[in-house]
Amino acid sequence: MNKTPDKDGIRRYGKGHISNGMAEDKTKCQEEVSDGGRWLSYHQCRKPRGFGPEKQFCKVHDPKYIEAKDKARQAKWDLRHKRDRVQWAGHRLLRLLIRAAPHISDDEIRKEVEQEIIDLGDVGYLLAND
Ligand SMILES: [Zn+2]
């Protein structure tokens, strides 16, 4: 994210009650990052700039990189959600198939379904009596 400069056009980092902050080092990434300590204090990212708009960011703070990372995380979450849905649908369909098996008129398909149910063993029994 673009850090807004002060009125004099200079970006300052780590401004607080006791400090006026450090003026921007124009060779470093312009992102402001947390010191990671007990107090909420910040400093300019220490990595060299060279990425993103006007090459003002380091690789990990490049807005395009952050966006791509967010998209990848979302895609991973979506896939997990789909897998969960398939798993639940599979459970319901299997129970339905156990009930429907005796009514399948095609001998070959019925025998195949019944064999699958037998192969399920305990799981098939649990599903049928769920
Ligand atoms: Zn950075």
Apparent shape = rod-shaped
Total count of helical runs of at least 4 residues: 3
Rounded radius of gyration (Å) = 30 Å
Instruction: Tell me the strand order in the biggest sheet.
Output: 1-2
Instruction: Give the DSSP E fraction (strand runs of 2 or more residues).
Output: 5-15%
The overall pLDDT, averaged over residues, is 89
Are there runs of 5+ residues with pLDDT below 50, and where? none
**Percentage of residues assigned to helices:** 40-55%
Largest sheet: 2 strands, antiparallel
Ligands in the structure? zinc ion
Structural class: mainly alpha
Strand segment tally: 4
SSE arrangement, N to C? EEEEHHH
Beginning-to-end CA distance, first to last residue: 53 Å
Describe this structure in words.
The chain has helices at 63-100, 107-120, 122-128, and strands at residues 12-13, 22-23, 32-34, 42-44. The chain has 130 residues and is mainly α. The protein has a domain at 1-61. Strand 1 (12-13) and strand 2 form a beta hairpin. The radius of gyration is 30 Å and the shape is rod-shaped. The chain starts with 11 loop residues before the first strand and ends with a helix. Residues 29, 31, 45, 47, 57-58, 60-61 line the site of zinc ion (ZN).
